[in-house]
């Protein structure tokens, strides 16, 4: 009986490791983002607090954030420095409505990076039809780091181009004021 239980536990652990997917860290980031935008009374969960930053993002992303955070965009109510952005990096905004129609899909894989595409509607609570129906698109570059999937970069997709949060952090870290 003990051997059966041990074998079952090993299979369960192996299956969990095998079932890990490149979309897992993206789904977690999107769940946090959805919670943040869905309630105005709750506490905002910051994606770059030490725990989620260290668990969900690659070491190069963490290092770039560390350098960029030396130049915060604002001061907080308690006098501590804020983050280097001053806006939500997933929605690329300071304002918005609860996210709707969130869809996460796995894209291509090139040179060890899996592109994960996320679409959502951010402006459903507004009266303007063109904004209400607009769809935001964000791409996450996900890589395997030490046997687990982590986010290496975030790209907001616009009509003409895409940007890079990683490049933005690196540029922000080198700016002089």
TrEMBL record:
Domain of life, per lineage: Bacteria
Keyword flag Signal: yes
Protein name as catalogued: DUF3828 domain-containing protein
Signal sequence, start to end: 1-19
Keywords: Signal
Protein species of origin: Pseudorhizobium flavum
Lineage, broadest ranks: Bacteria, Pseudomonadati, Pseudomonadota, Alphaproteobacteria, Hyphomicrobiales
């Amino acid at each position: 009986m003990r051997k059966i239980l041990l074998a079952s536990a090993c299979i369960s652990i192996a299956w969990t490791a095998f079932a890990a997917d490149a979309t897992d860290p993206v789904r977690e980031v999107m769940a946090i983002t959805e919670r943040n935008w869905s309630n105005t009374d709750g506490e905002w969960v910051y994606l770059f607090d030490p725990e989620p930053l260290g668990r969900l993002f690659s070491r190069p992303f963490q290092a770039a954030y560390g350098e960029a955070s030396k130049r915060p965009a604002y001061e907080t109510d308690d006098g501590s420095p804020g983050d280097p952005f001053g806006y939500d990096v997933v929605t690329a905004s300071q304002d918005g409505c609860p996210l709707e129609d969130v869809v996460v899909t796995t894209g291509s894989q090139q040179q060890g990076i899996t592109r994960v595409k996320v679409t959502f509607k951010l402006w459903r609570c507004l009266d303007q039809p063109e904004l209400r129906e607009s769809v935001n698109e964000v791409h996450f570059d996900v890589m395997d780091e030490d046997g687990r999937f982590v986010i290496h970069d975030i790209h907001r997709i616009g009509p003409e181009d895409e940007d890079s949060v990683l490049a933005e952090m690196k540029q922000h870290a080198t700016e002089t004021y």
